Amino acid sequence: MPGTFEYALCYIVENKLDLTGFDAWYNNDKTGAAAYPPSVMLKIILLGYAHGLISS
Asked: What sign for the dihedral angle of Cα 43, 49, 51, 54?
């Protein structure tokens, strides 16, 4: 919902940060399950820190 911290966090991560450095690590075609996009993982970690969850 616009005006919330979560909305601002999603906007900043998706539109203002350059995450191209993580693109090489994102591909997991050889083995294992499909990798999560780096932007999603960053959002989860930052939202957890914002809510006081310091364990990752």
From this structure: positive
Q: Are the CB atoms for 45 and 36 separated by under 8 Å?
A: no
Q: Cα–Cα distance between 43 and 30 in angstroms, integer?
A: 26
pLDDT value for 22 = 83
The residues, ordered by sequence, that sit 6+ positions from 8 with a Cβ below 8 Å of its Cβ are none
What is the reported pTM? 0.77
- CA-to-CA distance for 43 and 24, rounded, in angstroms? 19
Q: Which amino acid is at 26?
A: Y
